[in-house]
Write a structure and sequence with these properties.
Helix content is 27%, strand content 32%. Strands 2-3-1-4-5-11-6 form a seven-stranded mixed sheet, sandwiched between helices. A six-stranded antiparallel sheet has the order 18-17-20-13-12-21. Strands 26, 31, 32, 33 and 34 form a five-stranded antiparallel sheet that branches. It has 16 helices and 34 strands. It has five domains: 264 residues, Rossmann fold (3-Layer(aba) Sandwich); 74 residues, Translation factors (Elongation Factor Tu (Ef-tu), domain 3, Beta Barrel), CATH 2.40.30; 69 residues, Elongation Factor G (Translational Gtpase), domain 3 (Alpha-Beta Plaits, 2-Layer Sandwich); 112 residues, Ribosomal Protein S5, domain 2 (2-Layer Sandwich); 80 residues, Alpha-Beta Plaits (2-Layer Sandwich), CATH 3.30.70. The chain is α+β, with helices and mostly antiparallel strands and 652 residues long. Strand 7 and strand 8 form a beta hairpin. The protein binds guanosine-5'-triphosphate and magnesium ion. Magnesium ion binds next to helix 1. Guanosine-5'-triphosphate (GTP) binds next to helix 1.
């Protein structure tokens, strides 16, 4: 059993890597292979269900050659990109796992950019090497370089025997190895067939590193052979400073290249001191932890997953003024209670009162990624109204666990709307909710907030005259109801002269007129109308505020119905981001949904991407993201903001 505190290891302290990359690239398979290769507690065999798209971050601890590691296996779907962002905020390095096929390179772009955005050093693990054909590593690398602002440097070239990849040459040491299933690779003589390719790839590696290292540059120029140390130094520096990304090859499924990956990590991943420096976190001071995930774990209560930036942290002792209710590590992925943890560790803190994802406990608040704006929404309908209280408690827990989820109670529509990053995201959230609370619910399409207005000015007269016993009710009003320009809102004025309606009743008329706009003849709130009280009569005994309000209500109801009411629908300004080859598809998608294309332009800072702008009715946003992603290998995304209300041609 490794010492997870890192006290025994070489001084780097406990380190943390995040496995990120596109959906299905093999991150979870790689984690299992890494745990197996590290020889720690055996990972639980994943059943079929877990082989499906990952929807949750998984934390596992492992020890490799005496060093303690925390590995964060992030779900790859774009709908869970925020989980990966949260993991990157606390990781020393990102291992970007990608598929080897050259035509899948574009799918790695978002992960490369996520690491760049977070400023985290990265390594690329090109997985599924078993599926690659001759010469494809080179093509893949070229395609991947097109997606990366950092320089990719290949660290290995594959050795082929009889069409299959059976081993590799390490380009730093120039040693050749043959894969052995389930064991460390065996050192072999470098095969003749690979020598040319090896020399070419090593040349590229040295050249890339020499750009940042004068000593190495001199050796390269003078055609001298640099020592391994002379290569490792600029490699490490380039990685730490985000200039260089090492590329390793392997097959998670067939346990190929896993030991090599471990050794590269051991060598290259910055230690706690380097990461603290990168993030400008003081080494000295009170204990400090940053929470990057919240999970309600049944009997264990609420868990706050955190990186310990300064230790130690003890069970029962305060951390940032809050009592630590418990501490968990996850050797091999299984929770284990511990009493104390040290700086650098990634652990779950139990029952931390009032703590939320993104919080820094102890010391100044550290930066943390903001949740993305929602792109997909469903309205929630309870099967049994009695569950309302349980549902709202469960929803509260859900949004606490996942800040990319937003819950809104729409009073106007009488509906509860859950929004997030896509269909998979919302379905996974609601499945968790159903499992934890037992509440039965279904989802429906959210209502669009339509409005209505009028097209014709009308003059409307109404009289209330009621004799009930002794004391009666009397009011008489004449209103001019007229359309106003879009966005001007509601306006009430009066043109009463000679006190035909006494001043004291006029406010009641105004309020009743405005109240009448809350639901117009088409069933929606009425906007952009003016109401003018132009005439009326009163009775010295029977008139009252209430009587004038009633008369006004009658006048408004009849008047609005005669004034050519028309439905207004909300129109959003929508910006779709896609790789340029999908720009025409994005335009077709928008026009097919009643969109009015405003134009498109290159997306700033995103080589090869476009932004398409359009005005789109809000009703057409429903499931737009699903269609967009299916058209664009999952890469397309959009942002929106309300633009204006437009008269709707469609009768509703
Ligand atoms: N041929 C081949 N298949 C692999 C390899 N590694 C993983 N796979 C398969 O790829 C599929 C996806 O693997 P996962 O490990 O679940 O992928 P993931 O990256 O965790 O996916 P998400 O969590 O959804 O993002 C599974 O069917 C694996 O068996 C490999 O090296 N070679
Ligand atoms: Mg996974």
């Amino acid at each position: 059993m490794p010492d997870f505190t890192g006290r025994e290891s070489g001084g780097a302290g406990p380190r943390c890597i995040a496995l990120i990359g596109p959906q299905g690239a093999g991150k979870s398979t790689l984690l299992d292979a890494m745990l197996a290769a590290a020889g720690g507690p055996a990972p639980r065999r994943r059943d079929h269900h877990q082989r499906e798209a990952g929807t949750e971050l998984r934390l596992a601890h492992a020890g490799f050659m005496g060093d303690p590691w925390a590995i964060l296996d992030c779900p790859g779907s774009v709908e869970f990109a925020h989980e990966a962002d949260c993991a990157l905020a606390v990781a020393d390095l990102a291992v970007i796992v990608c598929e080897s096929a050259p035509d899948r390179a574009a799918t790695v772009g978002p992960a490369l950019r996520a690491a760049e955005r977070a400023g985290v050093p990265a390594m690329l693990f090109v997985n599924k090497l078993d599926l690659l054909g001759e010469g494809q590593v080179r093509d893949s690398l070229a395609a991947l370089q097109g997606q990366s602002h950092r320089k990719l440097v290949l660290r290995q070239v594959p050795i082929r025997e009889g069409g299959a990849i059976t081993g590799y040459v390490d380009l730093v040491s120039e040693r050749a190895y043959r894969y052995r299933r389930g064991a460390a690779s065996e050192r072999i003589e470098m095969p003749e067939a690979v020598r040319t390719r090896e020399a070419e790839a090593r040349g590229a590696l040295l050249e890339a590193l020499a750009d940042h290292d004068d000593a190495l540059m001199e050796k390269v120029l003078e055609d001298l052979v640099p020592s391994a140390e002379e290569i490792y130094r600029p490699l490490h520096a380039g990685e730490v400073h985000g200039q260089v990304v090492s590329v390793l090859l392997g097959s998670a499924e067939h346990a190929g290249g896993i030991q090599r990956l471990w050794k590269a990590l051991r060598h290259d991943v910055p230690g706690l001191a380097e990461t603290r420096e990168r993030l400008a976190i003081d080494a000295a001071g009170e204990a400090c932890a940053q929470v990057f995930r919240t999970l309600h774990a049944g009997h264990a209560g609420r868990l706050s997953y955190a990186r310990i930036w300064r230790g130690p942290v003890k069970e029962g002792a305060p951390l940032g003024g809050i009592r630590v209710g418990g501490l968990h590590r996850f050797p091999g992925g299984e929770a284990q209670k511990v009493a104390q943890v040290e700086a650098g560790e990634v652990v779950a803190l139990a029952r931390m009162e009032g703590v939320r994802t993104g919080d820094t406990l102890g010391g100044e608040r550290l930066p943390f990624p903001a949740a993305p704006a929602p792109v997909h929404a469903v309205a929630i309908v309870l099967e049994d109204r009695k569950d309302e209280v349980r549902l709202s408690a469960a929803l509260q827990r859900l949004t606490e666990e996942d800040s990319a989820l937003t819950l809104t109670h729409d009073a106007e529509m009488g509906q509860m709307v859950l929004s997030g990053q896509g269909d998979l995201h919302l379905r996974a959230a609601l499945e968790r909710l159903a499992a934890s609370s037992g509440v039965k619910l279904r989802t429906v399409r959210p209502q669009v907030a339509y409005r209505e207005t009028i097209r014709q000015p009308v003059t409307q007269h109404a009289r209330l005259k009621r004799q009930t016993g002794g004391h009666g009710q009397f009011a008489d009003v004449k209103l001019e109801i007229a359309p106003r320009a879009r966005g001007e809102g509601f306006l009430f004025t009066d043109r009463i002269v000679g006190g035909v309606v006494p001043k004291r009743f006029i406010p009641a008329v105004g309020e009743a007129a405005e109240a009448a706009t809350r639901k117009g003849p088409l069933g929606h709130p009425v906007v952009d109308v003016s109401v003018t009280l132009v005439d009326g009569t009163f009775h010295s005994v029977d008139s009252s505020d209430m009587a004038f309000a009633s008369a006004t209500r009658m006048a408004m109801q009849d008047g609005l119905a005669r004034a050519e009411p028309v439905l207004l629908e909300p129109i959003d300004q929508v910006t779709i981001s896609v790789p340029a080859e999908y720009t025409p598809a994005a335009q077709r998608l928008l026009s097919g949904r009643r969109g009015q294309i405003l134009g498109f332009a290159a997306k700033e800072g995103w080589d090869g991407w476009d932004e398409v702008q359009a005005l789109l009715p809000e009703a057409e946003l429903h499931e737009l993201i699903i269609e967009l992603r299916s058209l664009t290998m999952g890469l397309g995304s959009y942002t929106r903001r309300f633009d204006h209300l437009a008269e709707s041609r469609a009768a509703r």
